Amino acid sequence: MVEVTRWVRTGERPLDWRKRMSDNIAYALLVYTGLQIFVTLGALKGHKSSILPYFALVILVAAIIPACRRFERRWNRLSTEQAADPAYGAAYRRDRLWLWAIAIGLPFVLTAIFMGLTRFVTGE
Questions:
Q1: pLDDT, tens digit, for every residue of 75-112?
Q2: What is the pTM for the complete model shown?
Q3: Which residue, 60, 48, 54, is CA-closest to 107?
Q4: Under DSSP, is residue 124 helix (H, G, I), strand (E, B) or coil?
């Protein structure tokens, strides 16, 4: 009760690594999905019309969800005391860095691979 009172009085939120990681995962999924759609569709504009790019988008969006669940599961295993322990700060920053590197970098890497495969198959 004292922690909640302090939070209300000072405007400072209580430390909870589980919630912070969950929020980062939600935002990272949105960024990843948006980037994947715009990068892939932008790169494939002008290529022959096919359902393959759209099918690839569905597969790639579905593939990132298990990776994000793995991050979330790791942090949801923390007890309430552990979730408020500042000692987990370094691990949180490391996981957050990996999460965002994957969310931002993977769409570009996968699009490059997909474009390479498309050029190889079509002989362009």
A1: 999 999 999 999 999 999 999 999 999 999 988 888 88
A2: 0.76
A3: 60
A4: coil
